[in-house]
Design brief:
Layout lengths: L6 H6 L5 H4 L1 H4 L24 H17 L8
C-alpha cells in the first residue's frame, strides 16, 4: 500500500452521509385517511345536484307556461 504524504489531513476530513444529513427533513409522521368510512365526492359540482332539483325546476317552468297563456309571464 502506498503511503500518503500528509496522513493527518486525511483523518481530519469527515465524510458526510447525505442520507443522515437530510433525514430530519423527510422522516415525518404521516396522516392517513380513515378507510372505514365511505366518502363520495361529486364529479360535477356545478351541474344539477340531484333529480329532485331538476324536477322542481321543470315543474316551475311548466306551471308558468300553463297557468298564464294570455298574460305576460311573471316567472
Amino acid at each position: 500500500m502506498k503511503k500518503r504524504k500528509n496522513q493527518r489531513q486525511a483523518t481530519e476530513i469527515a465524510l458526510q452521509n447525505p442520507v443522515a444529513k437530510f433525514a430530519h427533513q423527510f422522516n415525518k409522521a404521516q396522516v392517513f385517511s380513515d378507510k372505514t368510512q365511505y366518502r363520495r365526492t361529486a364529479k360535477h359540482r356545478k351541474q344539477e345536484a340531484s333529480a329532485s332539483t331538476f324536477m322542481t325546476r321543470m315543474l316551475a317552468e311548466a306551471a308558468c307556461s300553463i297557468n298564464t297563456p294570455y298574460k305576460a309571464k311573471t316567472c
